[in-house]
Amino acid sequence: MTPPTVDRWCCRTVELAARMLPAEHRQRYALEFIAELYGMSHPQQVSHSVQVLSRAWALRAALDAAALGPIPEKARHRTRGWLLCHLGRHLWALHRNPDVGGKDAVFELCRRCGRERQGYEAPPPGSVLGG
Amino acid sequence: MADGGPRMTIPTQLVLRALLEDPTRELYGVEVGAAAGLPSGTVHPILARLEGLRWLESRWEEIDTRVAGRPARRYYRLTADGVHSARAALARAYRPSRAPRFRPATEQP
Q1: From the CB of residue A18, how many other CB atoms can be counted at a distance below 10 Å?
Q2: Domain coordinates of chain B in residue numbers?
Q3: Total H helices, total E strands in chain A
Q4: What is the pLDDT of residue B49?
Q5: Contact indicator for A47, B84 with CB cutoff of 8 Å
Q6: Fold of B10-93
Q7: Model pTM?
């Protein structure tokens, strides 16, 4: 039985992919990628090695994220909320200033970032559904 | 999404489903790709993310490389916690498609 052969260039390609990873993971993934090439036909080796190389940055990002640990759900919401407010997509809610009477007492306040908006105009009577 | 769980993208769901078919079975990267129906070289980022969350564990194959004529492979398997978390995450990720809305045709007078 002839021993399985691996294309030299495919080996180089997956080694290059492993070189793009954080230093502590390089050796492990280089060995893992090369071991996976065994048992594949030559076209499969080429396809596999190119795909491994094309996904090397995604793998690096995944390894970096794993090193940082999971992002808590609260932090995710905070980040998304900050971004939305930064883009002007505030979450307005009506508030009333008890010190001021009349129409000027009503103002809008963003529930996420606390920004205030003056000049709230109440909808005319009869314009709301069922009114 | 669970607190700290992975983003349940379609490829992540496919990988988890493939691993959940037999949680005790160990698969190496190419086998995971084949079982999930994904290109063989694209599963490693997903496996790394799941391993980082301790949903997966991996180990080197214990073989005599001279006898086998090839290097040892890295095998992946779901952890006990990973099995529960993966099942729960897949159940949450499942969104039944909306039933088609049939509206009776209204006749114009």
Answers
A1: 22
A2: 10-93
A3: 5, 3
A4: 92
A5: no
A6: Arc Repressor Mutant, subunit A (1.10.10)
A7: 0.67
